[in-house]
Amino acid sequence: MATNSSNGEQPTSSKPPPLPSPLRFSKYFQANTRILVTGGAGFIGSHLVDKLMENEKNEVIVVDNFFTGSKDNLKKWIDHPRFELIRHDITQPFLVEVDKIYHLACPASPIFYKYNPVKTIKTNVIGTLNMLGLAKRVGARILLTSTSEVYGDPLTHPQPETYWGNVNPIGVRSCYDEGKRVAETLMYDYHRQHGIEIRIARIFNTYGPRMNIDDGRVVSNFIAQALRGEPLTVQKPGTQTRSFCYVSDMVDGLICLMEGKNTGPINIGNPGEFTMVELAKTVKELINPEVEINMVDNTPDDPRQRKPDITKAKELLDWQPRVTLRDGLPLMEEDFRTRLGISKR
Ligand SMILES: NC(=O)c1ccc[n+]([C@@H]2O[C@H](COP(=O)([O-])OP(=O)(O)OC[C@H]3O[C@@H](n4cnc5c(N)ncnc54)[C@H](O)[C@@H]3O)[C@@H](O)[C@H]2O)c1
Ligand SMILES: O=C(O)[C@H]1O[C@H](OP(=O)(O)OP(=O)(O)OC[C@H]2O[C@@H](n3ccc(=O)[nH]c3=O)[C@H](O)[C@@H]2O)[C@H](O)[C@@H](O)[C@@H]1O
């Protein structure tokens, strides 16, 4: 399959990363690993926090402006001695002594990122600059959660990391997909110019418990609709495809990337590919066979196909997803039933 770059490897930096505080090397300094998670009150971020908190050597600091995230997602950690939650908007500078930064803050559902596109692009560009500035100042390693949307409406299928994408620079999705492309550029420029240790994950559609019920993304929409007995809204033509990754697999992939030696970008996703009609039929079969499936209008620039090539993740991170869509949907159904107060008949 044709790709735009010869081997996909980007020139990396030979500069040593900036040094953290001299105290970190002191014999009597007993501190834990301090980890900042931006956007940690959101869907993926809160699951990542749960996993990081399992390690007693980790201290986790979350910054979030609660635009799409919620304190509820982190309620079990409030008042825990190794946990701090800070309300902060990352488009403003933020200074803190940390060793690692998982940089997730950004609305991810198309409905929310299109709601205030100027704010979305500021979050991606100024927010990422602020986090890179912090990484440079304190010598932290930083991981960016980029997206498969950097491939736009892909002309290569499945998408390897070497594919440069087919993105509309002035469309209604550009605040997000072009924003993430600039964020990736900034990561590499800080790496080459200042020696910052970077990691870039290109995440493909992820689903699971704690997604906002009215998040607007397809899996949460279909599950909420099926439980409420409303028709499933398949946006036309319905033949467009996505590949859905369960959130626990995603979190494992992100941690493998952060802890490994590879800068990325690396695709993290589940290659199981479904059309939206197939997804609707599966949700109907598993959750509510009575429900109707309605075809409704789509939004502009909707990518027609998307499936990750995860060869790199398998080889370099020894990671691959384990949870199939049929196993993951019932886990999400259970969470949605609890939150909607709809018990199983
Ligand atoms: N879920 C997916 O399928 C998917 C796919 C590709 C990439 N990603 C990326 O993963 C990350 C997390 O996605 P998610 O699905 O958990 O979304 P989410 O909307 O649930 O979480 C995003 C979090 O960032 C916070 N946030 C947004 N703007 C902020 C700002 N300016 N300052 C501080 N906090 C801010 C929100 O309040 C929220 O808690 C995002 O960067 C997204 O682009 C997600
Ligand atoms: O994984 C990614 O890279 C990106 O995926 C998503 O983008 P998208 O795939 O468009 O997500 P959805 O809004 O869930 O839409 C998926 C498909 O379902 C369709 N859809 C959506 C909602 C709905 O009710 N019905 C429906 O058929 C859409 O037309 C689209 O074809 C979000 O932009 C980001 O979370 C993420 O960065």
TrEMBL record:
Q: Which cofactor does it need?
A: NAD(+)
Q: Which organism is it from?
A: Hibiscus sabdariffa (roselle)
EC main group: lyase
What's this protein's function?
Catalyzes the NAD-dependent decarboxylation of UDP-glucuronic acid to UDP-xylose. Necessary for the biosynthesis of the core tetrasaccharide in glycosaminoglycan biosynthesis.
Residues in domain NAD(P)-binding? 36-330
- Entry EC number(s): 4.1.1.35
Question: This protein is called what?
Answer: UDP-glucuronate decarboxylase
The protein's matches in InterPro entries, at most eight in alphabetical order, are given as: NAD(P)-bd_dom, NAD(P)-bd_dom_sf, UXS-like
Region spans: Disordered: 1-21
In the record, the note on similarity to other proteins reads: Belongs to the NAD(P)-dependent epimerase/dehydratase family. UDP-glucuronic acid decarboxylase subfamily.
Known pathway = Nucleotide-sugar biosynthesis; UDP-alpha-D-xylose biosynthesis; UDP-alpha-D-xylose from UDP-alpha-D-glucuronate: step 1/1
Q: Which UniProt keywords apply?
A: Decarboxylase, Lyase, NAD
Q: Where is the composition biased (Polar residues)?
A: 1-10
